[in-house]
Hints:
alpha/beta
Amino acid sequence: MTIRAVLFDIGGPIATEIEYEQAIDRDIITLFSDVGVTVTSERYVTSWRRAVDSFAPDAYHAVVADLAHHHDDLTAQIIRQVRARSHERGLFELRPGVAELLEELHARGLKLGLAANQPAEVIGRMEAAGIAKYFASQAVSGTLGFHKPDPRLFLHACEALGVEPAECIMVGDRIDCDIAPANALGMRTVCLRTGRHASQEPRTEAERPDAEVTEVAAMREAILRLLG
């Protein structure tokens, strides 16, 4: 089937999230310290490895729950404060070269959409970065009310773009939330190996992406190759 659309995750492929993640790391460690819990760097790394390896959809929640020894009230308290601080910062770090790639794909007549676990206000940040205009489907988890790996997020984008899943390429940075569910829907997939989920491995061949890349230039080549 002819590819007519490309869906993108935001964190990873579009936004690097380097400062974003570093700020949240500091918040988590500081907030635990404020309640008398010392989190060493080794403990933090171990919690992240568990979250990634277990395919935890909300990795930050999984990390905080692990550090809190699954004390629900403490987990909820820290997650609430972390999200409030992140919202106030409003960081958005556009990945170099992505704007040019989006412009090229749009100029080729491809329909572009988002499939991302992000708050609704991220669209305003994308508008400020000059890239929201390329996306005909801009709904994210914060506007839809459900989160990847829920297939409804992908299907909503397909419906908004007027395409079938098999006519789409999904570009993401996580096997669990991006590649596996997109593969299951019959999409072609490109995994950008970046960030904390860079080493995440598929559990079965059905979860393996069509292409794995580490930079925007290779992402472009992978997309063009899948277009045929």
